[in-house]
Amino acid sequence: MVYRNRSKSVLSKHSKKSDDKAHYKSRSKKKSKSKSKSKKLRIYWRYISIIWILWLGLIYYYESVVVKRAMKKCQWSTWENWPKGAESHRVGLFADPQIMDEYSYPGRPQVVNYFTRVIVDHYHRRNWKYVQYYLDPDSNFFLGDLFDGGRNWDDKQWIKEYTRFNEIFPKKPLRRTVMSLPGNHDIGFGDEVIESSLERFSSYFGETSSSLEAGNHTFVLLDTISLSDKKNPNVSRVPMEFLNNFAMDSHPHPRILLTHVPLWRNPEQQTCGKLRESKKPFPIQKGLQYQTVIDEELSQEILTKTQPEILFSGDDHDHCHILHSYPSQGEAKTAQEITVKSCAMNMGINRPAIQLLSLYNPSDLKTVNAGEEYESKTYQTELCYMPDPFKAIKMYLWGLLFSAIFILYMHFFPKSFNNHVAITMNRVFSRPDNVASDLPLPTSVSKSKSRKSLTHTKYAVNDTRSVKQFLANATMLTISVMSIFIYFYTVV
């Protein structure tokens, strides 16, 4: 009897030990499974999606909302002052787009130049598209320097750049777009004009000196660069013949002169005005393939023979508004000159712009409007600022910094991330049914266990650090954000 009881106790102890071993093995298996799960690469799609949405909002704001706001400020109705019911002819003037090429920044690495060119081209393309859609000028005139290294390219490379230029600035149907005025970056300047580059430019864009009628005004496009050549008559003959013939013909409409290089002025007396960014006087200088103003004698000859009401120039990249005086049939006449700001973001100015010109010249300038006699000049003009390109870039860099810090914090400080970010995300985005999970646990449960239960949410990340997991999530985030940029830079 004693033996039987003893054997039972031994058996019970043995079975208890075997049960404990089995339980320990099952627990160790569960732990190993959980460890293997934690070691498995996880793509945190919830966080990537949230950051992607933030990037989408940021990019949309600066690539669409800000641009529309700039166009709204330039709307013709906000500054035109014509009689009620007047139908004006509206003109957009674009100076020095100077699309970036290999001559722009020769000392920089090719990778840097590539991304810079993508950004600059996009800025041009987007602004041109929005101007044509929202402002919809009847006529568009480019004031030279279409290319940067255009005068130096061989024919094959030049055709490639010509195609690219027309892709950036496509001509709008039923609207006039004139690109035939050359700049010194297109053909050279004065005695250093490259004749082959001049012939090539005129073959593709049209005669470099011409006149045309628009809005009951005569636009005079004068190639003052070739006109300044004193050595090669093959270069200067064509613009000089055009100028002389124009002076002999009769022109009943008011005249508007367009030239790439500004006419001569005394910068100490003829100051540029408050819209100029630079506080220094207008530069009077010359060098290899450039000269900041046309010679004084030639400038007076141009003014006398064209007799413009107003003239527009480019080349300087900054705004300048002065008044010229010139003799005409024994009398002194005056003409305003506005040097138009560059429309490019890489021309050394903070705010690129275009110049808007509104023309209204009916057969009788004196019209009756609401019982009052109305008389005005036949033109009105306004500086139209393009969106600030550098503010958008700064905000994108801040967004990049935030994204990098967030994803580094998530992968290399996972416990802190779970204790702060994951719990907050769970509280904000969880359904009301799950709120009970965040209620205080019974006092018998330890604080560590409570914290552990809170961090085990769908927003929690793996507790272990993993470089591979970091690289995987960083790659997915980069691809998703780049897809937004590609969409706005190529499709929109």
UniProtKB/TrEMBL annotation:
* GO biological process, alphabetically ordered: GPI anchor biosynthetic process
Q: Which GO terms describe its molecular function?
A: hydrolase activity
A GO term from the CC aspect: endoplasmic reticulum
- Which protein are we looking at? Lipid phosphatase CDC1
Q: Per its UniProt record, what PANTHER family does this chain match?
A: METALLO PHOSPHOESTERASE RELATED, METALLOPHOSPHOESTERASE, ISOFORM E
SUPFAM superfamilies for this protein = Metallo-dependent phosphatases
User: Per the record, which residues fall in region Disordered?
Assistant: 1-34
